[in-house]
């Protein structure tokens, strides 16, 4: 995208200045960006006071901007290249900088290690709170819908010293970690992540509960259902939808599966073996009976059995749960975007703190792109949505990958600047290009999930060791 900077005005190659009505629309719509920018500056200022003993050239907002730029580069560029790119962008857009010449790579490396561990996580939390207050997030029957799932990541070799393990009996060289994510599937916003050196997804899921409000709904895939997880969900006044795994099922679930009913409310009591295990692990000492609703759902001759705490059968219809469970696939799309497009596993840092920083910056970048893209996508000059719900043949959706890289290119305008003209310039460009970042919705496509990409770095987790 080409820009010309003349005096205090911005012009984009190939586009004229917006008309009066467009200017008014831009002024009204830039409010959310100004509030997000103000929140970002306030959060960074608070964090600066916690680790800076004196005024420094490199502050929190510059480190966060650097991290979000470097994690989007697929590990092709070093510190110096990214720093020079940030300086060039800021000079080009007339954005104030701490000094005229770019800082050194070694200075940035030292500064990012001084940043508090939870700094970027705090910024992300503050931005999500502001977004919630200034928009109307999509809900389902007044409930917020979340999915929790974990995914394994390849991490740098040196993290073996921090307890990260290499899978046994394989030819793998790099250790693995697990990233668990709390994801709002209706609004595509990441609320929380947990980065750990084990593969206990249930333990990570329990940590996410403190980020939720009363009566929020969590969707879990197979492998999460257990009496203890169900007990913790009810203890935190949450609602849940489990897909129950096949195999070792409770007696009540087996009887429901063999019956001709597709909807039943049962009393769930753990088996004696489960009680004994929970006592040994000192997780529970009392085991109250739990009222649970079991639902049987068929899709393409495959039987799905759901267990849910949404027991009001008149309000929550059986057919709703199949569509609701399909929304969980959004978190799988999130992991595909992170691993295949942004290459989240190409870490620049080789220590645990640096890897955690890059993951948090990755989540912050995704949330910023979603908030900015979705806000602009649902508006046009005539007040009519781009996505025409009345005509399913012409239904379109935002191409988030293109939108994401557009946001990455203009990050200094969003983060580093506090001038109103920069917000108007950015929003006008985003608003013009967002109409070209759409694609048709083509549901029902199925392809074999088989990757033909050659493995040149390491084998998969279950690959046998070479003889």
UniProtKB/TrEMBL annotation:
The protein's name in its UniProt record: IS4 family transposase
GO molecular function: DNA binding; transposase activity
Ranges for domain Transposase IS4-like: 141-368
Keywords from the UniProt entry: DNA recombination, DNA-binding, Transposition
Keyword DNA-binding found: yes
UniProt family annotation: Belongs to the transposase 11 family.
BP GO annotations: DNA transposition
Keyword Repeat: no
Biased composition (Basic residues): 442-456
Disordered: annotated span: 441-467
